[in-house]
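ARCHIVE CARD
SHELF: 3
SLOT: left
DATA:
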Amino acid sequence: MNETDILIRHYETHDEEGRLLSRHGQVEYITTQKYIHACAQTVGAKLVLEIGAGTGRYSVPLAREGFDVTALELVEHNLDVLRGKLTGGEKLTALQGNALDLSRFADGSFDLVLLLGPMYHLFTFEDKQKALAEAVRVTKKGGYLLVSYCMNEPTVVQYVFQRGNLREVLENHMLTADWHCVSEPKEIFELVRTEDIAALDATVNAAREKLVATDGATRYLCDFIDEADDFTFEKWVEYHLAVCERQDLIGASHHVLDILRKNEL
């Protein structure tokens, strides 16, 4: 089974929609939406591309708000779910495609580009750099690109230690000497550190404006968050949003959002 087939099988059986709808998943969603809207407002965005749109958790609401959205997704099953949400009034074009090849789009086609999933599943620096470069290419000069990553340290803390997988991981040589997880396509997710993201950013014609922890400490406390009453959950979100840009906490977040603005030259 090749890398693409492994990914397709994962998303045919994994409830990603349900993850973002859970209480703990809502923190990531609320945070990401906050920064999407802030960037859109700054540039007066109308044309939005989401690369790796999944089941449309972001694309569909944005289209209902009046944005002209193009949703590109690799997995046909996810596209079927996305299309099933549409009522006919949205400006949304759903296309099957790969983040590594955006040749169907001209340079500078979109005001705002979202790359909120593909970097989770690209396992070489070259592939990640290609996806990022393509996303930057189709972004208008001065436009925004928002890129999500899965972070290394939460997996070491929770999967390796808390869930008792230390011996298995060591025996299978899944950690480097400095405790960086070694991922392969069969593990589904690629894990990075902040310096890995910075190295990718250095290869493209865009400048970082913010690096944001989209869920922060939330998933360490997911049972507590899921069971919290409305008041407690509201205050947790308030706390999280107050600290999500603190760079001393970024690497401990399960997910981060890299906010780039394409250079004018």
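SLOT: right
DATA:
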Amino acid sequence: MLKNLYKLPRFFLFKMDAEAAHHFTLKMLKRTIKLPFAKSTLRALYQIEDKRLERNVFGLTFKNPVGLAAGLDKNAECIDAFAAMGFGFIEIGTVTPLAQPGNDKPRLFRIIQDEAIINRMGFNNEGAEIVRQNILSSQLIKLKNRNILIGGNIGKNKVTPNENAVDDYIKCYHILYDVVDYFVVNISSPNTPNLRDLQEREPLENLLTALQLENNKKQTPKPILLKIAPDLSFTQLDEIIEVITATKLSGIIATNTTITRDGLSINQAAIEQIGAGGLSGRPLTKKATEVIQYLSEKTEGKLPIIAVGGIMTAQDAIEKINAGASLVQLYSGFIYKGLDLVKEINQKILETKS
């Protein structure tokens, strides 16, 4: 029955331009969640309350291990709605210090036959101050005993040169510090020019050291994680592990979108017509799992990993967990499968425990 609930809205949403459908959905969620009984209805349909789903990771308690990945609610406009949908945590952003429009449109494309998405959004967001106010105005943040966590995914503005990138990340950190539970340093999006250069050892170590210095000045430091690309070599992954260890980061998110076009069934002309951007969804499933397994084995399971990338079914999530992930996040899978997927993953996890 639950699966049928998404079929009709998906039919109409997929008739729309991908980005227009995204904004329409967020607008409808903001309105709908304010209706009487909306939250209680969503909770009744999709939430599973079971202590066996709890995860204690980098000092935080997650009510379940299924999260909403960054990119879906960039400006923290709909966290009240997503909180009622069964997620254990919500990651907002990527947030930059100043508002920016992102790259030229069109910049978001569905490849339905492959359950894939290509985007070159370019960190479009309303800026850290507005995002902070959106979180503060939500009902969720006002709850004394809220049991869903909020992550802040932060980046640099497009106009900021890499040599000044540290300043942007620190600004975002301070603005969002008291409204999020953990931070994610995004240096792996392929859609901001030269951003991935920050994954090189020296600039990465400088950035993470500076952030941790600010973090450790706080009475209660927040967990800081690094989000990496799936396109790194094993040698590059080894260097990143060394930097994370040296800077005492809390964990890693694997992975962001890929710049490759492996796994697509559409012809080369169609791929070229879409153009540049990061690929997510089903074609990323295997690659992201391989990165997670490598990171887990190299760190002997001691580095907390949040898995994201190609989680399109409950079994995909289980495979990510078996590969070494502590938590999982949904993006493309949520677009293609809807809320059913959140509940199905949690049910599958409980089944594997019984």
